[in-house]
Amino acid sequence: MARVRDNPPGMVHVRLNRQVAARMDFFTDRAGGAIATYQKIPGNEAQGSHPQLYAQLIPEANRRARDEGMTDRIHEIVAKDLRRLYPTLDADRVDDHNQWVARMLPEFYPGCAAEVRRFLDRQAASRGRLHFCCDYLAQALVTGAAASGKAAAGRLVAQGA
User: Fold this and answer.
1) pTM of the predicted model, to two decimals?
2) Phi, psi angles (nearest 5°) of residue 3
3) If one looks up domain 5-105 in CATH, what number appears?
């Protein structure tokens, strides 16, 4: 498991001066832009939250941000794509905030799944009370994390721990 690597994602949060309808889009690198995830998030006045746009970089754009020292200027990397996705960006933007998380999501590589499978098989064969799941198994997002946590709990129950 020492080979599990993390992807350092860069994100931009853009506060807007008008309400937006909820929307979420996912893009692959084949889309040709710098954005992997794009959201329009409605504001909620009662809770004090403002309408905003959210954009997360694709891995190649993350590397560019890191290598070119742009982790505090991620908005510059996504500006063209945000204007394409939200044409009134310049008129509606109140401010934006860049966010850089040095170690967040797993980055998969050739042989990664086989290595995780071997680790899980070794873990299942032992009677230890410590079972790894979620982020430790490259399962950072909710669906994978919940499934790996449920599997770990099942192994503990089966052992009578």
Assistant:
1) 0.66
2) -85, -5
3) 3.90.660.10
pLDDT digits (tens, 9 = 90+) for 9-49: 899 999 999 999 999 999 987 888 999 999 999 999 899 99
- Residue 55: closest CA among 79, 32, 91, 73: 79
CA–CA–CA angle 37, 43, 48 (5° rounding) = 125
Question: What string of DSSP letters covers 116-152?
Answer: HHHHHHHHHHS--S----GGGGT--SHHHHHHHHHHH
Q: Looking at the predicted structure, is the pLDDT value of residue 65 above 70?
A: yes
Stretch(es) of the chain classified as CATH 3.90.660.10: 5-105
The predicted-structure confidence for 101-154, as pLDDT tens digits, reads as follows 876 666 666 777 788 788 888 877 877 767 777 665 655 566 666 777 777 777
Q: Phi and psi at residue 151, in whole multiples of 5°?
A: -65, -40
In which element (H, E) is residue 45 found?
none
Q: Are the CB atoms for 62 and 7 separated by under 8 Å?
A: yes
Q: Which residues contact 26 (CB under 8 A, 6 or more apart)?
A: 36, 37, 38
